[in-house]
Design brief:
CATH topology of the largest domain: D-Maltodextrin-Binding Protein, domain 2
CATH class of the largest domain: Alpha Beta
Helix content: 40-55%
Number of strands: 11
Number of helices: 12
Order of helices and strands: EHHEHEHEEEHEEHEHEHHHEHH
Strand content: 15-25%
CATH superfamily of the largest domain: Periplasmic binding protein-like II
Number of domains: 2
CATH architecture of the largest domain: 3-Layer(aba) Sandwich
Strand order of the largest sheet: 2-1-3-10-4-11
Length: 265
């Protein structure tokens, strides 16, 4: 029996909804993004749909080649929801469940404004000028006059997609070929049944099914190729550039995806 840690958001549905069809004895555990790395490190699961920051920060993890949660433009579910224009923002409340989104906004602001733009990052200040929102909560929230889509900002700056999460397992996992094959089949069936997934999650979130279908097909995709690998490496490099200023950015231990992953895309 395989054990998987999966994200609770509808953006992961095409990658996880049909896992039991191809592995009936599987055990699925829903975890928030910040919890995924611990599930793998502790051997409580065999594979996890892990945020890209956590994948890059652990040299013992390997990516299932070609599978992830990606956006090439606006994603609509990873947002900076602000009360004022970006250049007037002085404080941002980060999202405790997502290190990747928190790192991404800091990279983007550094690229926009440089190291001298003074923004205070907090996790608990309700009076912050802006706040990060992700996942289903972001889909349900109304937008302010100054709501910024982080994936769109990344795309405009880099002309690359952004990879939010990848399927990963520990380097010493014994059955990587079998588990990879099963996850590919799951993704294929999920992408071929978007209308079913859209109705299911629209009912759960009390949203229109046409909007969820738009989200899962027009905003997201699930294949990692050369452009996505390039984006992962660039994100790593840009994060490393700002790691030296500890007053602005929490230190992140980053690494490249690895030659073996590049060659199997």
């Amino acid at each position: 029996m395989y054990r998987f840690a999966v994200l609770p958001y509808c953006n992961a549905a095409p990658l996880v909804y049909y896992i039991s069809d191809f592995c009936p004895s599987t055990n699925l555990v829903e975890k928030y993004p910040r919890e995924m790395s611990d599930e793998l490190k502790s051997d409580r699961v065999d594979a996890a749909l892990i945020p890209i920051v956590d994948f890059l920060s652990d040299e013992k993890l390997r990516m299932v080649p070609g599978l992830g949660i990606c956006a090439d433009g606006p994603v609509e579910s990873v947002l900076l929801r602000s009360q004022k224009p970006l250049d007037e923002v002085k404080s941002i409340r980060l999202f405790p469940e997502s290190r990747t989104s928190n790192a991404l906004i800091q990279v983007l602001l550094f690229q926009y404004f440089g190291a001298n733009h003074d923004i205070h990052f907090t996790t608990d200040d309700p009076e912050a000028d802006a706040k990060i929102m992700i996942g289903d909560k972001a889909l349900r929230q109304g937008r302010t006059d100054y709501t910024y889509d982080l994936s769109d900002m990344w795309n405009r700056q880099t002309n690359l997609p952004f990879v939010f999460a990848v399927w990963a397992y520990k380097a010493d996992f014994f059955d990587r070929t079998d588990i990879s094959s099963m996850l590919y089949k799951t993704k294929e069936k999920g992408c071929n049944n978007i209308s079913i997934l859209s109705r299911h999650h629209a009912e759960r979130l009390n949203l229109d099914s046409a909007y969820i279908q738009h989200y899962l097909t027009d905003c997201l995709y699930y294949d990692i190729g050369p452009r996505e690998v390039e984006s992962i490496k660039l994100f790593q490099e840009l994060t490393a550039q700002i790691n030296g200023d500890d007053s602005k950015v929490p230190a992140l231990s980053m690494r490249h995806p690895g030659k073996e992953n590049d060659e199997n895309l």
